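Supplementary Methods, section 5.1.

A reviewer requested that the exact input to the structure prediction be made available. We therefore reproduce it here, unchanged from the version used in the analyses.
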Amino acid sequence: MRSVLVLGSGRVVNPFVRYLLDETDFGLIVASLDVDRAADIIAAHPRGSVKKLDVRDIHALKAVVSDPSVSLVASFLPPVYHVDVAKLCIANGKPMLSTSYASDGLKALSGEAKQKGILILAEVGLDPGIDHMSAMKTIHKVQDDGGKVISFRSACGAIPAPEASLNPFGYKFSWYPEGALGAAKRPAQYLEDGKEIAIPSDSLLEHYSLQYIEGLGYFENYPNMNCLPYLRTYGISTAQTIYRGTLRYIGWCETLDKFKKLGLLDEEEQDYLEHFSYRQLLEQLTGSASQDELAQNLKSKFCIDKESSIMRRLEWLGLLSDTALPLQRGSIFGILLETMLRKMSYMENERDMVVLQDEFIVEYLDKQVNERITSTLVDYGVPGGDSAIARTVGLPSAIATKLILQGKIDLVGVRIPTDPMIYKPVLQELKQQGIILHEKREQLVPKNKEVI
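The structure derived from this sequence is encoded token-by-token as follows.
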């Protein structure tokens, strides 16, 4: 029996596995260090199996990838492992799929993959993934109609549904926690009215804007990584604006910016944490010798006033308490993650929410008006079932897997889902699964034209 090897057993793997077991006759092998979690995902299905795997053991990884029954490898591992997995897939003549960004190291394997006739398909989740596919569907339609995109903005957020947004941060973890907070530490670049804007990582969260989503209200939108390469990737090199951002509830950016300036996102291993309380940690980070001096330094050095909302969030999280740190060694970032996970995880039957919105400004040379096209996806998790983030990451990758194994995608090399051979059938199947982007079109009068 032909099988799909699934590397990892994280939060998005369940809908991926269940879709392929329900919709195909392929076998599914879930290889993970957490065999109990993997067994729960397989749920004793006759075409499912579990293998214990420590991906740090390259020989063990090689053994599972080279298994003759494996026809495709789907990697849901942390991105640092994707290059090693891809090399093994190319060596063994097997296609690979992942939902993570295609790193430079992965892209460097494209030539070898093409020579071997192998497809390495990356960025086939939500963001990246559905965002690419939705954008390319609109862009190709615009171009077919004789128009050109002069502005493209995209923003996405995986956040609690409004009724589940019950803590002062307006956030709960529904996916890879390190990735959720790590996004706040990356630099960003985008193009605005023909001008390249570069935002260093230390001030990223100062550069947020407010974005209104119909039916939901306002969100903070901060820049996401370097989106300039997408001018070429999307075939819109003449666009004067391109921007990709992350959506959060109001208050997130200012708070995380202060956390970053306090040193709470520092990933360097520390040797002074043993027997420290949270308050002692903050005293250490702010150069304070006492609790009173801590309050003074938070105000004078970091502009965190005693009555401010940020101080309230510090207090709610317990960072000003005499409670012992949850970790006695490691990084301060690790301590913050552990603390936030304990207080900011979803309760049973709470829903998360995924919001994705693309906005295109389109110019038609033979018309007196431009056009704004807005494409919006809002998806909710199922109480007691799959989260929205799991569905919107797991299902696109599962559908693409099915298409590859059915021979309906015959591309080679390292790719992302911008080709109509990929995005058309995937978006169509997602629609049948209830994941739908709703489009709105409005006419605009260009600044240099008058309607007669």
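The first strand starts at residue 3 and ends at 7. These observations are discussed further in the main text.
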